Amino acid sequence: ISKNAQGISRKSQELFLLVFVTRFLDEDIISCYDTFMKRYLILTTVSIVLLLSLCCNYTPRNTYRPEQDDCEHVRYVLLPTFLVACVLHHFQALDTFKYNDHVRFFWTFSILLELTAMLPQLRMFRKYHQVEPSTRTGGTFIFLKGLYRLFYLLN
């Protein structure tokens, strides 16, 4: 495995962290597996963001190029997704009001954000063509994210 972060978008990882945190706001403990997976997804994504962000001598931090990760993810991804979630939630909430309405809103927001969280990553790949040829990190990353979405839809 290559210890190289070249071509990985930290901004996409930050958006996926927000996806997991907002989706798993419910405090329901369904099973040990469910609880473990919720915490695992959040902690691994936090560790990826921290590895790419903190100033240290660890190899992935030295190979990450923030100047190439130039998508304004708050303006072009986060804000429009939040507004669409507000509109959708408003129409869903017209018929009933429940005590956990905020959880339903954040769940809707997380589903919409997950659809758009890859945009900074795709922009980075398209703009800079920084895919490691020996390991095909970028192509494998996109393939695995697509496979994840396929299994999520089948579930």
Structure description:
The chain has seven helices and no strands. The protein has helices spanning 10-23, 32-53, 59-63, 73-93, 101-116, 119-128, 137-154. Helix 1 (10-23) runs antiparallel to helix 5 (101-116) and helix 4 (73-93) packs across helix 5. The longest helix is centred in the N-terminal third of the chain and has 22 residues, at 32-53. It is globular and about 45 Å long. The model has no long low-confidence stretch (mean pLDDT 76).
Helix/strand layout:
Elements: H1 10-23, H2 32-53, H3 59-63, H4 73-93, H5 101-116, H6 119-128, H7 137-154
Helix pairs in contact: 1-2, 1-5, 4-5
What form results from the Cα inertia axes? globular
Order of helices and strands: HHHHHHH
User: Termini, distance in Å?
Assistant: 30 Å
Low-pLDDT parts are none
The whole-number mean of residue pLDDT values reads: 76
How many helical elements? 7
Strand portion = under 5%
Task: State the total count of DSSP E strands.
Answer: 0
Query: Which structural class should the secondary elements be placed in?
Result: mainly alpha
* Helix fraction bin: 55-70%
